[in-house]
Amino acid sequence: MDWNTLATALFGADHGISQEGDVLRGNVRFDGNPLTVIGTTNHAPIGVRLALEQARVVLDTVAQHPGRPILLLIDTQGQMLRRRDELLGINRAMAHLGMSIDFARRRGHRVLGLVYDQALSGGFITSGLIADACDALPEAEIRVMRIPAMARVTKISEDRLTELSRSNPVFAPGVENYVAMGGVRRLWTGDLAVALREALASASGEDVRAADGRTRGGRRLAAAVIQRVLDAA
């Protein structure tokens, strides 16, 4: 689904969200209440410029509109793989974006992520996965690392990883696997405005991803390991 069709389904034809290059932004009203929307389109690679632009909108919302909910519309191919961005400190820019989102959450803003098209690698980690909750459309594509890249990093053969991915969501791309692992809270089907209303109503600052992964069978040990660390602290 393209971003304009999605925005129209959520907020009506006069939604007020604009596109500037690969960046989406706007102040909309939902159920009579204001909502800040920030996101990307065109499978945008997140480099220094895009990371700082998004962080600026988040911080401006915190400063100018205390408590206003923030919706992140996610469509990214991951971090920008370009020497210029590496030299400019892409790691710091993306960390700044993630910290800005976390700061907004700590200041009482409900922050929701919605993967409406594609979410890959660092561009997803520093946005949707830091929100209070990250949801997705059923047709979205989500992965952090392709199997060939995973094979190079882990030194496990592609054939073995492909075999493991058939039974273990941790090794497999796909939106359903991220739901199973708890990274994606739920899929939005049917009336999208109803789905957004429910998402806003159930958003909280509590991180339940590990518990969801245990309940759904996608990450069976994470919650137990986290609890052991907390108990030992």
TrEMBL record:
SUPFAM superfamilies: ClpP/crotonase (SSF52096). It holds the Pfam family MdcE. It comes from the Bacteria. InterPro entries: ClpP/crotonase-like_dom_sf. This is Malonate decarboxylase gamma subunit. The lineage of its organism: Bacteria, Pseudomonadati, Pseudomonadota, Betaproteobacteria, Burkholderiales.
